[in-house]
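JOB MANIFEST
job_type = single_chain_structure
chain_count = 1
residues = 266
[input]
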Amino acid sequence: MLAWGIPRLRDLPWRRTRDPWLVLVSEVMLQQTQARRVIPKWESFGAAYPTPRECAAAPLGDVLRLWQGLGYPRRARDLHGAAGLIAARHEGEVPDDLDALVALPGVGAYTARAVLAFAFGRDVAVVDTNIARVLARTAGARLTRAAAQASADRLVPDGHGWVWNQALMDLGATVCRPLPRCGHCPLAATCAWGSAGTPSPDPGEGSAGVSRRQRPYAGSDRQARGALLRALTSGPVLRAAHRDDIVESLVRDGLVVERFGRLSLP
């Protein structure tokens, strides 16, 4: 796997740093967003907020403006909150402990493990959508989140946690895709699903709870929320011009402030 993966690693900018904060930013941005869309935002975010203290000191509204275009703005709110906790509880340094990382807003088990592997070089396994698909197909069975994590944990070679996880992730992103290219796969000889002739159902679909398709964006509440937030990046707007349920959901999420019938970013 390493012999195949090392010369084929995708050139992604966050792979050129071991700065824990910038790695954390990349992992939060990559949640539900394709890498090509993340690259320019990650670069501009790192330039604007190169440390947790600088992010924490900025108004949430400024962070939301910079985030515009990535979608799922609650991630920006949570990242801003995580920066505040890092500044207040960890002397401005991203913690290198799994429990402390998971305690940060918006940081789950995957993101915490990714920071440990990609910033601190720990030999821990990360399981994202791509890796879960590879694990399930090679096993020939759908895997629960716990089973996928246990399988991944057994595979990490000592001293190679960073490159192993990156290579396995790239295998899922470029070869073991939803429509697989099995003839290019270094694991083809040991893949139970491939050896069986890739029968239906595909064990990679739904494994580890991270491979399910999203609902259509067009016409969704997500689209309406995004449109209102986009409008607010230019300044306050009248509440009356927008759906009550959308406004109330954004206010409830702490992404919009209402004053005297006008809406603005925090």
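[summary]
The first helix runs from residue 2 to 5.
The beta strands are 237-238, 257-259, 262-264.
exit_status = 0
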